Structures are given as structure tokens and as C-alpha cells.
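Query structure, 156 C-alpha cells:
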């Protein structure tokens, strides 16, 4: 197995962290409708049921998008960790999308793009040729055994 460069390991760990934080964000988003529902019911506010329904729908949709982001980051992180070419391409795609997260995401995305497009890193993701077992014509000839000579009797 090829040695993974430190830069690829850092990018893979970054993808894992972003995926994990996205999963935590989903938990937070899905708790908001519960809080709104309890608070409006407790206050017996007019239109509380409609407010809860609207907030719940919006939060579920946003949580669904975050779930896709989390899954993408975790899968791409795994592909980078295992040095798969699809992981490198996916890392580039996520980095391009990260350019929109100004200012920190822009800097991180630009650095990831620069690093994953380097030729030495690109070579790291190329599949290694499998060693083929030798064909019979490539095997060494077995040593020829001496033919047995005339047998001498022990009577001699």
C-alpha cells in the first residue's frame, strides 16, 4: 500500500470533521420545532399550531440538506483516506463549493484545490500496478537430477 501524504491525511480528517459537525447541526435543527411547539402550546398563543408546522417543515428541509452535506463529506473523507481517485475528485468538488463560504471557506477551499491538483498528489491517487504471477515460461528450469548409476551389491 502506498504511503499517504500528510496533506491528504489532513484534508481527509477535515472532511470527517465537517461531516460530523453537519450531523450535530441536524440534531440542533430538529430540536427547534420541538422547542417552538412546546413554547407556543405552553403560552396558548394564537396560531401556535401553524407556527409549529411552518418551523417544523423548514427545519426538516434544512436538516435534509445538511444530511446530504454530511454524507458527502464523510464519503469523500473516506475516499481520500483510502487514496481513491474518486475521493480526490470529490474533494475537489467539495472544495469548489466551499469557495462560496467566504472568508474562511474560501481560503480552505482554495488550499484544498491547490493541493489536490499538484502532480505529486495526483500520482499518489493513481492505482498501483498489480504484480502478475510469473508465467510458466518465466519460471526457472528445475535442476536435472543425475540418473541413477549401476547399483553395486554390498557383497563387493
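Result returned for the query:
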Amino acid at each position: 500500500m502506498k504511503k499517504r501524504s500528510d496533506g491528504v491525511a489532513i484534508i481527509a480528517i477535515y472532511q470527517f470533521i465537517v461531516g460530523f459537525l453537519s450531523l450535530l447541526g441536524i440534531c440542533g435543527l430538529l430540536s427547534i420545532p420541538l422547542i417552538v411547539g412546546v413554547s407556543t402550546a405552553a403560552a396558548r398563543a394564537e396560531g401556535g399550531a401553524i407556527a409549529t408546522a411552518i418551523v417544523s417543515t423548514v427545519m426538516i428541509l434544512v436538516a435534509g440538506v445538511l444530511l446530504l452535506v454530511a454524507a458527502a463529506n464523510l464519503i469523500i473523507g473516506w475516499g481520500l483516506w483510502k487514496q481513491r481517485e474518486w475521493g480526490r475528485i470529490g474533494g475537489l468538488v467539495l472544495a469548489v463549493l466551499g469557495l462560496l463560504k467566504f472568508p474562511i471557506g474560501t481560503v480552505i477551499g482554495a488550499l484544498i484545490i491547490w493541493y489536490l491538483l499538484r502532480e505529486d498528489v495526483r500520482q499518489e491517487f493513481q492505482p498501483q500496478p498489480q504484480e502478475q504471477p510469473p508465467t510458466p515460461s518465466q519460471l526457472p528450469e528445475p535442476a536435472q537430477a543425475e540418473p541413477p548409476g549401476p547399483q553395486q551389491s554390498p557383497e563387493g
